């Protein structure tokens, strides 16, 4: 009975549902149920009766069916005939084998119906009971019981009406008994007829100690046939000789069989066996096949296996050599079947030869062979069952490498095989393979072809869809039972159900699609009333089918879909069909067309209109025609008919679609009408302050643009795009119009798109200032460069970006630029624009000395003599101002003010002595300085009045509230160290440094110099007198020198009167000494002044200013 289907299993080597429906009708199969537990469906056969009246039958074997009353047994099995109706339980038992003679036989558990075959339309039927028991000397001490098997032959009307009809087909009866001879013959495990209907085949796998045997007999013996076919019967062991040594397989013996594991293989399924076997010869040669053969387990026959004019017989031995084998035999003239070819199995216990089918898959006149191995397995590949396809090489079987079709794990793929005939009428025979344990069970349909077998299933039938488990255990095909000249398929199971799948006729549709006009002129409005541009689509259909007599009226449903290529790209179609159905999208037109009979064409028309302002004017508009057969019958009509004719199906091997296209008239694309553009891109980073023009950013040594972060700057990318011929000497090569020219810019998060600004230079015919459209978050923008951007066009514009997203961690800016066009221009690739980012801190430092001029003089005192501030001397106050025009520095790190002044001369004496360091805006706030002020720890005086006086003299603080630092330094007595110098210029250096982990910080205007000039005090010069004794000594020395000079001059005749000669004119030479050298001379005389670095740091307040004075 039908049951719930099992779970789906993984598929190997193919997708199960890929060909889920071709021409076997799975929508309306015929289902028949038998008695529960009877194994109704264990074997099946399609049969067509021609006399006395035409009828078609589904013949079903039920080997566990209950016994008939006259059989005196419990279960005997039986044969059932099912008509082609929609009734599920209208099968009836064929009345054969109704009596029993218990003194000669026993029919208990004889398995009648284990096999069933039909000769075809108008032919005979055979069904067998392989466990039929023959008895001798019943109830006597020497009683014997031999399981010889028995077969029944019926006429086409399922009756025993002819001389050879009935159950006397038991060739093992009366022969030597015992299991080593014919005592366990088991005739009828397999049976069949030759294609010419003259011979009947019986497999007896229990003969000769289960070596097995194959018997071939004439099935028709009329007077004419006796003259024509005066031969037989034939057996593999010889009908007369009955010699087991003639069987091409050994007896059932395990002696000498050795199993051992391959320890060198990691494959757990690898198994090596060794046994003495004469069959280990060249593949395909004749010889014994190893132990436990069961020859005759499956049978088939055909002409053209080894010779085209010779009838050969094929039988399987699934236990031969423990791998299985298939033997091809021929008749000889002494009633023997002589082996010609032995095909060994591939894997241990794979049951190679469990089922066989002879079929010409490639229609070359040579019969091919399909062999089932349902127990083949590969754990790693999850294979469970296989079917081997041998494509005949003109009778040379030794050269054949079979094609293995694999089933899913534990599916027993290959346990059922049948030749389907030409299922789709394409000229090639097809096959069906059953896999009853693949889920609920499946049947795979494979088509033949000129190359042999098409390994991808053309159709997969699933037992789950019909509620049948173990679906596909038995198969029968190759016969048309519904009268449409297409062979049908009957599927059996182990769940007491069978299903008939009828083949639907296959039609081959010819179609043609044309468009008018063939080219679209955008300047010509050809729609009715000149309302737009229209294109007419014309589609014509006709069909052919096999046979030629099959010529019904066929209705096709068709759909025209326009601009399908743009739809695949996710772009909107450019057209709309006129007069379409309300339910159709504007780019589709659907309707039906009737084809009255074969080869009768029918045409339809439809018109579509171009939408206004389309942008894509280069790529053609592609129209796709798709069609299918309309099933006009309603469900009620289908149910009313007992067996309605099936609607045809389209040939699945031919596409049910056709495309056509219409092109635009292409101007600006050269003589070949192929637009080959030459878009080129150049770019550079720019910036501007305020409303000024954009200027290029500076570049570093490697040419990379450097962007200094500042609040006052706008950053832009200057883009220049050209469409010029690459070679002016050959302008026809490229540089044609670039249709839908587009620039796509992708921005980083730190630099989102802000806007676009056109440059003054927009040159070239047809170039317009097109907008740039950004996405929602500004990470990408698309700028239209023209549609088309014509030959010779050039354009320049600025993409303005926002710098608000730049952070301290930003090191580099990258923008991806990509040009695109639908014109032909290979090699257009994205380019990356890069700029290095530096963080420019808007810190500046300025300074002033109060006073800027000083005078020196007084009494020299040593360092140890100075105890108080009053002893140091007059004061110099340095006011240093630090300004931050930007944001707070808290996130950047620590900022430091460095002050350097000359604090001592070369001999170590003080020049400027630091007394205080104060923050003007924050009185009392402590500022960390290194080293500290007042290193000698002098006693400081109260500076209330002085401070007021000095602050009044201090320049007014800017209203912006900058940072103020004041360094207060004192000096005294240094002038006595330079007695010959009247003035000295002292320089104080101030700069700002920032300590931070940020590597790309840049400081600008962060250093200054503060000069102070010191002059000799005039009052000190006047007040200072010279002792008298020094003056006296100086006068006496002068008189002595004068006397000596006069004496010398007198000695040399200086005072004599010269002769009157022409007086010589003296010459003088003046040398101008540069000021720099005079300064150097002054410094050499006064001595070198040393400078000592003075460093202070601060923390800023809420107002952004920290002034310090000292």
UniProtKB/TrEMBL annotation:
Xref: InterPro entries: FG-GAP (IPR013517), Int_alpha_beta-p (IPR013519), Integrin_alpha (IPR000413), Integrin_alpha_C_CS (IPR018184), Integrin_alpha_Ig-like_1 (IPR013649), Integrin_alpha_Ig-like_2 (IPR048285), Integrin_alpha_Ig-like_3 (IPR048286), Integrin_alpha_N (IPR028994)
Topology versus the membrane: Single-pass type I membrane protein
Location relative to the cell: Membrane
Membrane-spanning segments: 1028-1050
Domain (Integrin alpha first immunoglubulin-like) ranges: 503-667
Coiled coil: none
Region spans: Disordered: 942-964
Pfam families linked: FG-GAP, Integrin_A_Ig_1, Integrin_A_Ig_2, Integrin_A_Ig_3
Domain named Integrin alpha third immunoglobulin-like: residues: 843-959
Chain intervals with Basic and acidic residues compositional bias: 943-956
Keyword Glycoprotein found: yes
Protein name in the entry: Uncharacterized protein
Keywords of this entry: Cell adhesion, Glycoprotein, Integrin, Membrane, Receptor, Repeat, Signal, Transmembrane, Transmembrane helix
Provenance organism: Gopherus agassizii (Agassiz's desert tortoise)
One GO CC term on file: external side of plasma membrane
Region forming the signal peptide: 1-21
GO biological process: cell adhesion mediated by integrin; cell-cell adhesion; cell-matrix adhesion; integrin-mediated signaling pathway; leukocyte migration
Family in the record: Belongs to the integrin alpha chain family.
Residue span, Integrin alpha second immunoglobulin-like domain: 669-837
UniProt FG-GAP repeat ranges: 338-399, 400-455, 459-518
MF terms in GO: integrin binding
């Amino acid at each position: 009975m039908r049951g719930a289907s099992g779970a789906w299993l993984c598929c190997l080597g193919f997708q199960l549902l890929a060909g889920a429906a071709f021409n076997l009708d799975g929508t309306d199969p015929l289902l028949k149920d038998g008695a529960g537990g009877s194994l109704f469906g264990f074997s099946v056969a399609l049969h067509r009766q021609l006399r006395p009246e035409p009828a078609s039958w589904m013949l079903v074997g039920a080997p566990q069916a209950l016994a008939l009353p006259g059989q005196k047994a419990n279960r005997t099995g039986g044969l059932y005939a099912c008509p082609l109706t929609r009734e599920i339980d209208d099968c009836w038992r064929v009345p054969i084998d109704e009596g029993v003679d218990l003194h000669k036989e026993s029919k208990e558990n004889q398995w009648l119906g284990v096999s069933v075959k039909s000769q075809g339309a108008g032919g005979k039927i055979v069904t067998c009971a392989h466990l039929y028991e023959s008895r001798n000397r019943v109830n006597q001490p020497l009683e014997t019981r031999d399981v010889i098997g028995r077969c029944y032959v019926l006429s086409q009307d399922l009756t025993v009406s002819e001389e050879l009809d009935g159950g006397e087909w038991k060739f093992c009866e009366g022969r030597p008994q015992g299991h080593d001879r014919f005592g366990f013959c088991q005739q009828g495990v397999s049976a069949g007829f030759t294609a010419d209907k003259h011979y009947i085949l019986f497999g007896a796998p229990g003969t000769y100690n289960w070596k097995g045997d194959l018997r071939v007999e004439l099935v028709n013996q009329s007077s004419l046939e006796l003259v024509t076919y005066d031969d037989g019967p034939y057996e593999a062991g010889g009908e007369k000789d009955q010699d087991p040594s003639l069987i091409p397989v050994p007896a059932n013996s395990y002696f000498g069989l050795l199993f051992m594991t391959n320890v060198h293989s990691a494959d757990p399924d690898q198994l090596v066996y060794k046994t003495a076997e004469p069959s280990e010869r060249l593949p395909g040669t004749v010889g014994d096949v190893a132990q436990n053969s069961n020859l005759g387990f499956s049978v088939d026959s055909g002409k053209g296996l080894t010779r085209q004019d010779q009838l050969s017989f094929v039988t399987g031995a699934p236990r031969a050599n423990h791998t299985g084998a298939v033997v091809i035999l021929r008749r000889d003239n002494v009633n023997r079947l002589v082996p010609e070819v032995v095909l060994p199995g591939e894997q241990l216990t794979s049951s190679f030869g469990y089922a066989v089918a002879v079929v010409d898959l490639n229609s070359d006149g040579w019969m091919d062979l399909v062999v089932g191995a349902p127990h083949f397995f590969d754990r790693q590949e999850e294979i469970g069952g296989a079917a081997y396809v041998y494509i005949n090489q003109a009778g040379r079987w030794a050269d054949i490498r079979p094609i293995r079709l694999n089933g899913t794990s534990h599916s027993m793929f290959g346990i059922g095989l049948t030749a389907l005939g030409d299922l789709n009428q394409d000229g090639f025979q097809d096959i069906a393979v059953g896999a009853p344990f693949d889920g609920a069970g499946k049947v795979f349909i494979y088509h033949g072809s000129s190359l042999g077998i098409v390994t991808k299933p053309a159709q997969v039938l699933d037992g789950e869809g019909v509620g049948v488990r173990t679906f596909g255990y038995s198969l029968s095909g190759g016969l048309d039972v519904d009268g449409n000249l297409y062979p049908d398929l009957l599927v059996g199971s182990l769940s007491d159900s069978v299903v008939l799948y009828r083949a639907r006729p296959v039609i081959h549709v010819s179609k043609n699609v044309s468009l008018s006009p063939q080219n679209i002129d955008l300047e010509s409005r050809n729609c009715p009333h000149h309302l737009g541009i229209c294109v007419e689509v014309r589609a014509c259909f006709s069909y052919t089918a096999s046979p030629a007599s099959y010529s019904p009226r066929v209705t096709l449903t068709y759909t025209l879909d326009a601009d399908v290529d743009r739809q695949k790209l996710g772009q909107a179609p450019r057209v709309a069909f006129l007069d379409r159905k309300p339910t159709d999208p504007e780019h589709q037109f659907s309707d039906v067309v009737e084809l009255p009979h074969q080869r009768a064409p029918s045409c339809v028309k439809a018109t579509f209109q171009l939408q206004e302002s389309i942008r894509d004017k280069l790529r053609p508009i592609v129209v796709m025609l798709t069609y299918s057969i309309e099933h006009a019958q309603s469900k009620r009509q289908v149910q009313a008919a007992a067996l309605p004719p099936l609607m045809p199906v389209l040939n699945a091997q031919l596409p049910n679609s056709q495309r056509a296209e219409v092109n635009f008239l292409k101007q600006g694309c050269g003589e070949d009408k192929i637009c080959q553009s030459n878009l080129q891109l150049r770019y550079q980073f720019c910036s501007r302050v305020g409303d000024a023009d954009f200027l290029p950013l500076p570049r570093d040594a490697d040419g990379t643009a450097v962007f200094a972060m500042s609040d006052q700057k706008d950053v832009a990318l200057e883009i220049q795009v050209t469409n010029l011929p690459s070679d002016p000497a050959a302008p026809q090569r490229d540089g044609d119009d670039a249709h839908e020219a587009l620039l796509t810019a992708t921005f980083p998060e730190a630099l989102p798109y802000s806007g676009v600004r056109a440059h003054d230079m927009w040159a070239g015919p047809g170039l317009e200032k097109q907008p740039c459209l950004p996405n929602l978050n500004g990470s990408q923008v698309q700028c239209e460069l023209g549609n088309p951007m014509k030959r010779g066009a050039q354009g320049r514009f600025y993409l303005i970006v926002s710098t608000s997203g730049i952070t301290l961690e930003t090191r580099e800016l990258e923008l991806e630029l990509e040009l695109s066009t639908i014109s032909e221009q290979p090699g257009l690739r994205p380019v990356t624009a890069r700029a290095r980012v530096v963080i420019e801190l808007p810190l500046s430092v300025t300074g002033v000395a109060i006073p800027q001029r000083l005078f020196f003089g007084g009494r020299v005192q040593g360092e140890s003599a100075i105890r108080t501030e009053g002893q140091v001397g007059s004061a110099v106050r340095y006011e240093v101002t630090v300004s931050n025009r930007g944001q707070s520095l808290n996130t950047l790190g620590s900022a430091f003010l460095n002050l350097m002044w000359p604090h001592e001369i070369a001999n170590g004496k003080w020049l400027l002595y630091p007394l205080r360091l104060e923050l003007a805006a924050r009185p009392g706030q402590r500022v960390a300085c290194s080293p500290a002020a007042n290193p000698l720890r002098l006693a400081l005086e109260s500076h209330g009045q002085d401070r007021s006086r000095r602050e009044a003299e201090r320049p007014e603080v800017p209203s912006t509230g900058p940072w103020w630092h004041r360094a207060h330094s004192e000096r005294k007595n240094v002038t006595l160290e330079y007695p010959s110098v009247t003035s000295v210029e002292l320089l104080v250096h101030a700069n700002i440094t920032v300590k931070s982990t940020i590597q790309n910080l840049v400081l600008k205007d962060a250093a200054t110099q503060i000069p102070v000039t010191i002059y000799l005090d005039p009052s000190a010069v006047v007040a200072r007198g010279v002792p008298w004794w020094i003056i006296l000594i100086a006068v006496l020395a002068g008189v002595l020198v004068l006397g000596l000079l006069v004496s010398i001059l007198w000695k040399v005749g200086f005072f004599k009167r010269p002769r009157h000669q022409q007086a010589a004119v003296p010459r003088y030479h003046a040398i101008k000494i540069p000021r720099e050298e005079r300064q150097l001379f002054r410094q050499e005389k006064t001595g070198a002044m040393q400078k000592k670095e003075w460093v202070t740091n601060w923390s800023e307040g809420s107002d952004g200013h920290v002034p310090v004075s000292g």
